[in-house]
Design a protein that fits this description.
The chain has 216 residues and is an alpha+beta fold. The chain is built from nine helices and four strands.
Length: 216
């Protein structure tokens, strides 16, 4: 049986591939694993049936037999451990790839999300004009370090891994901000991730949901 993931029935990202099911779809496509999708409304996400799968009433979740998981990073890690292609065979390289998974979600993502939420929710606040440059600098601090570490390499540590998958997913949240363009090697890094066939399949699958809802 194919695993089942949950996703937004009507995604707030409007088909831009930013919803949290995107890295899970991408990981499954990278390893060649077919999957089913259960689409949920915002109301259904908060109901008891879904909270049994995700205690915080969010997406995505992942179900495979009697296993139910939540949190996109944990799900990607599970997929990478079960299937070849997202984690190296060498033990040390594997550990480094896992480290980059944590770095993407725990170190690079928080200032990017903080900035994104401020842009979305605080534009009309009196403090916004003063707060935004502070948030921008917080993002740049992370991008400076990441850019220096990546250098002219294609990927973070040798071959493409789950660490790159999550890092590219996180960096894509800066699309339209103008911040990533200041780092040509990071812009090229994200473009390499987006050029992968598995990414394109995952993006198209997520976009198809938004298109269907919009046309309906």
């Amino acid at each position: 049986m194919s695993p089942t993931i949950t996703a937004f029935k009507s995604s707030p990202d409007r088909g831009r591939g930013l919803a949290r099911d995107m890295p899970v779809r991408w990981a499954l496509d990278e390893v060649g694993q077919s999957y089913d999708v259960r689409l949920l409304s915002f109301v259904e996400m908060k109901e008891a049936a879904h909270r049994a799968r995700h205690p915080f009433g969010q997406i995505p979740t992942y179900e495979d037999g009697d296993l139910a998981l939540f949190e996109s990073g944990a799900i990607v890690f599970h997929i990478a451990e079960r299937h070849a292609g997202l984690l190296p065979d060498d033990a040390n390289a594997r550990a480094r790839a896992i480290t980059w998974m944590f770095a993407a979600l725990s170190t690079v993502q928080p200032p990017i999300v903080d900035r994104g939420m401020a842009v979305l929710l605080e534009r009309e606040k009196t403090w916004y004009a003063e707060r935004l440059p502070i948030l921008d600098q917080g993002v740049r601090d992370r991008l400076n370090d990441l850019s220096s570490r990546l250098g002219d390499a294609d990927w973070l540590d040798g071959e493409f891994s789950a660490g790159d998958l999550l890092m590219v997913t996180v960096l894509r949240r800066l699309n339209g901000s103008g911040l990533l363009e200041d780092y040509p090697n990071l812009s090229a890094y994200v473009a390499r991730g987006e050029a992968r066939p598995a990414f394109k399949r995952a993006f198209d699958a997520q976009l198809a949901v938004f298109t269907a809802v919009s046309s309906g």
